[in-house]
Amino acid sequence: MGPILSSLVELQAVETELRRKQQRLKQTQQVLVKQQQQITQLQEALKAKHEEIKLVRMQHDKLELELKVREEDISKYRVALNTARTNKDYSAILTQINTRKADKSKLEDQIISLLNQIETDQGVCGEIEADIEVQTQKLQEINQNVSSKQQKFQEEIDKLSKQQAAAASQVPDKERSLFSRLAERYEGEVLAEVTKEGKRKNEHSCGGCYMQITLESVNALMTKDEVVICPNCGRILVLDKNPKQEATA
Ligand SMILES: [Zn+2]
Question: Which residue, among 47, 43, 59, has the nearest Cα to 121 in the 3D structure?
Fold first, then answer.
């Protein structure tokens, strides 16, 4: 491999490593964001549950008032019962009392059911609060862990950025600008290794898009030190993307 292609291979190696580290850095931040989101969701769920309890409590208070009214009515009717003059009056008042009693019993059932609901909801709130505490503690742990990781990745990225600049300076201008254009288009995967197809000899394909590469292109790569691009995807073709293996071979 001639100096131009070698310099591109070198640049690709640094580019790949740099993007990998940048990705790792991003991932560590995402873990933190995700954990924060989880806590926010729990806090929102807790708030909604509190609202729900508030509404049930209001309903409960309303029924308590209604119950009180029924009880007062019953007391009044009881007094009236003692002063009833006729049997007809007496039984009419008794009917009123019995109606109120039936209402009262219905209200009492509803009140009990609402109190049970409040108790259940408060239990749920307690569980959510406990979960928030656990997740907040976890967030703090992640935060500590992440900041040391981020520092490490950032140092590596800084180092690789310097290496990238050094590797890029070895590439001729024309090839370098082609490389950066393609790096943007293919997320840093600029070079594609030509791979030999299994079935027939002399059939080659682009490692980036898997389209067939002519033997002429392969021969050019083997004999000349110039850029050959894949006619389909436009990536720069090379026979070997790993310079270290080549160096030791
Ligand atoms: Zn291709």
Answer: 47
Residue range of the domain that includes 239 = 173-248
- Give the pLDDT mean for 184-198: 92
Tens-digit pLDDT profile for residues 8-42: 999 999 999 999 999 999 999 999 999 999 999 99
**Ligand 1: centre distance to CA 143 (Å):** 42
CATH number of the domain where residue 33 is located: 1.10.287.1490
Residue 2 belongs to a domain: no
Query: What one-letter code names the amino acid at 54?
Result: K
* Ion ligand 1 nearby residues (CB, 5 A): 206, 208-209, 230, 232-233
212 alpha carbon – ligand 1 mean position (Å): 8
pLDDT 10s digits, 97-109: 999 999 999 999 9
H/E element, 76: helix 3-82
